[in-house]
Amino acid sequence: MRPRPRPWIVPVLALLVTLAPAVALPALLRPAGGSAEPAAAAGRAAGGAPRPEARDVVLAVHGGAGTALRRENTDARTERAYRDGLAGALRAGQEVLRRGGDSVAAVEAAVRVLEDNPLFNAGKGAVFTEDAGHELDASVMRGSDLAAGAVTGVRHVRNPVSAARLVMERTRHVLLAGEAADAFAARNGLTPVTQDYFWTQKRWDELMKAKQARTAAGTPGASMTGTVGAVALDGRRGLAAATSTGGMTNKMAGRVGDSPVVGAGTYAKDGNVAASATGQGEVFLRGAATATLSHLVEFGGMDVAAAAREVVVRRLPRLGGTGGVIALDSRGTYAAPYSSEGMLHGYVTGGGRIVTRIFPDERGD
């Protein structure tokens, strides 16, 4: 005789099916497992939670992550040059916001200043590819409607971030590449420059050094030397982010990193977060770094500081790379964690206070 089903089984199974999504979603979004990093290194507050870098921030910029500047071997002139470079970008974006401009215009203005400064690996200071050329990438994203524009592999655009904005505003596409992107920028009013505009002795010396550094397999080495980016919050609480880079010294011609890819190097969504990343691009691509950060805030219930640190300090190093991110939420809370030796960055508050951080021992508020 077949046993009769127990009357309580069906209701219990139904309850389990109902509860399964509620259990599964937090499991997917909770911090990745593994050993916890030391509290001091993680920049945690006394209660154990990652703390924000600052509050009441309206604009922030970064000048790249990688090998850190050290107080003991950085002269006053060099320190001033980096601080002035970051502060100049902050003032440019701040002026846009002060005049009532939106967050997109503010991040473009800030990044253009960094692109024009040969200290930074973007625009004028772009590094060389393996064939001694320059290929530049940039992207911009508007948080109100998730509109975005990007260019990659451009060789004749002085300010790639402006070309990226043009793609967002004047085409139905998101990403244009190579010669077509150069031609599009010229047709839309950006005066072309020749490749020698980007040449600097510093970047040439870096290329020569990289070519001399052979890996165990006998192939030329490549080095990561940074990126620039900005995030902003305007008077209408609109968020935007932008990122621009010359790539990696001695990179393969045609290589594309995370900077022009929405969700990897750049992301912005109103009511949530704006983020710009810098570091080893392949890892930020594979980890969908800025989109993951945004999703941890929106769906995982994390604050911006916890989400940024979860991505940059815990998850991405497990994929084999390091770097940093600047992230700003809709309340003006700002986070700037990094897993590399250092990251150049700075911010301006709603009250007009400008802060720059270039040494690893400089801590947040």
Structural commentary:
There is one protein chain. This protein is an alpha+beta fold and 365 residues long. Helix content is 34%, strand content 21%. The strands form three sheets. It has an eight-stranded mixed beta sheet. The chain has a four-stranded antiparallel beta sheet with strand order 9-10-11-12. A hairpin with a 4-residue loop joins strand 2 (136-142) and strand 3 (147-154). The longest helix is centred in the N-terminal third of the chain and has 23 residues, at 76-98.
Helix-strand topology string: HHEHHEEHEHHEEEEEEHHHEEEE
Globular, elongated, flat, extended or rod-shaped: what is the shape? globular
List the uncertain runs.
Answer: 1-47
Main sheet characteristics = 8 strands, mixed
Alpha-carbon distance between the termini? 74 Å
Largest sheet, spatial ordering of strands: 4-3-2-7-6-1-13-14
Helix/strand-derived category reads alpha+beta
The amount of beta strand, in percent, is 15-25%
Q: Roughly how many Å is the radius of gyration?
A: 22 Å
Task: State the main characteristics.
365 residues; alpha+beta; disordered N terminus; globular; eight-stranded mixed sheet; 21% strand; single chain
Brief overview, please?
The chain is α+β, with helices and mostly antiparallel strands and 365 residues long. The longest helix has 23 residues, at 76-98.
Helices and strands, with pairings:
Blueprint: H1 9-29, H2 39-42, E1 57-66, H3 76-98, H4 103-115, E2 136-142, E3 147-154, H5 160-170, E4 175-177, H6 178-187, H7 201-212, E5 223-224, E6 228-233, E7 239-245, E8 248-249, E9 266-269, E10 273-279, H8 281-286, H9 289-298, H10 304-318, E11 323-329, E12 334-335, E13 342-349, E14 354-357
Helix pairs in contact: 3-4, 4-5, 9-10
